[in-house]
Design brief:
The structure is a homodimer.
Chain A lengths: L4 E5 L3 H13 L12 E5 L6 H5 L7 H13 L4 E3 L9 H7 L7 H12 L5 E5 L2 H6 L1 H8 L3 E3 L3 H16 L3 H17 L4 E4 L9 H6 L4 E3 H14 L1
Parallel strand pairs in A: 1-2, 1-3, 4-5, 4-6, 6-7
């Protein structure tokens, strides 16, 4: 395998570990040497993305740019960011990088097309920050999909608390809450649901295993896009 | 959390992802920002460690030193290597680093003391290369333990094939083989068994969950040593 993948990670650190695992599991490799070499910049002290978007915390951009700079200096061939909310700063990060930066939202939207070619309505579970910035809504709408997302009340009572449970390692508790949030999107017409925050698949492992065709895991979608790129 | 942990990884890539997950799971953190920031150099094209030790492949040392150099240049505070066999080159790597390098064998031996303070006989499952170099045998003997390991025949028919299964993503098959290898060590008096190759815990998840007191997972031991260091 030629060249390193740069991973701008740490948001959160468990999502980065999960991404690296999915990169390995999805690779058609038989020995270590067939996998994609990686350099990971995992600064988990990067300020919370959603807090910045809703105006209650500092911007993560300076730390994100520090990571982009280090990865470019290390000579990586391309960069991916296993954090959906960080893609609210995608344009600035991509402009600061001399190598291509994968887009997790586009990678996830592609997997919707592959998994459910006839779907018309797509549900999105994400952080409140990603939702506010509309990065999934706009990309999916441009592809002709109707998009359903939790209400502001459902973000505050279900999705945001469950994401915080993952970050505090309370995975089992989170699973029940995400199950409820997903079933509400399905009741409103979602034929497939994008897990559009890289913490969410960690909290929905059982449900994903039971019905993989009903979900797109954004971390998995990103890994698949990376593997395609490095195989080319 | 102050300063980055450098991780010299990619040996194999799944063991690195597993280590990062264990670093998160063992941390008493409630939010991303409480975890240990990491920079990972994961060059999975590093030549096979055991092949080099038994004289059938090139040395991994040049690539290992390239990783140590990059991590030092990136300004990390300490370095860990989630690969037991790579510790056969520990002295060279430690000498080339201006920051401390954790020793996975010492970290694992410490966990034996904590988990089974009365144990006298310790089993070690490792790669054949780690076994040949005697890094566990010598460290444990110096601490007063009797050490049991697979026979050369058991390495060739059980342990080495099962490690190759992990590297090829055949986890379930590997589990049965490792179970047999562990039960043979127990029959020869092992009161606790060190999983002294970072791929092995990935292939013994069920057995470890059933009887965690009977095993020391070297990846877990390394994560615990790192967390202690960064909390100090």
């Amino acid at each position: 395998m030629d060249g390193f993948l740069g991973v701008l990670g740490g948001m959160g650190p468990l999502a980065t570990a999960d991404f690296l695992g999915k990169l390995v599991e999805n690779s058609p490799a038989l020995v270590d040497q067939d996998h994609v070499p990686v350099i990971v910049y995992g600064d988990c002290t990067t300020p919370d993305r959603t807090a910045s978007i809703v105006g209650t915390g500092p911007s993560p951009l300076p730390k994100l740019l520090a990571g982009i700079t280090l990865l470019n200096q290390a000579g990586v061939k391309a960069i991916c960011i296993p954090c959906n909310s960080a893609h609210c700063w995608y344009d600035e990060l991509s402009a600061a990088s001399s190598v291509p930066v994968f887009h997790i939202v586009k990678a996830s939207a592609e997997q919707v097309r592959k998994k459910q070619p006839d779907a018309k309505t797509v549900g999105v579970l994400s952080t409140f920050g990603t939702h506010q910035m509309g990065i999934y809504r706009d990309t999916l709408a441009a592809m002709g999909y109707a998009v359903v997302a939790p209400s502001e009340d459902e973000f505050h009572t279900l999705v945001s608390p469950a994401i915080a449970m993952i970050k505090a390692n309370r995975l089992d508790e989170a699973e029940d809450v995400f199950r409820e949030a997903a079933s509400r999107l399905r009741a409103r017409g979602a034929e497939i649901i994008i897990l559009g925050c890289t913490e969410i698949p960690i909290g929905m492992r059982r449900q994903y295993r039971e019905t993989p065709a009903l979900f797109v895991d954004s971390n998995d979608a990103l890994a698949l896009a990376v593997i395609d790129f490095f195989a080319a």
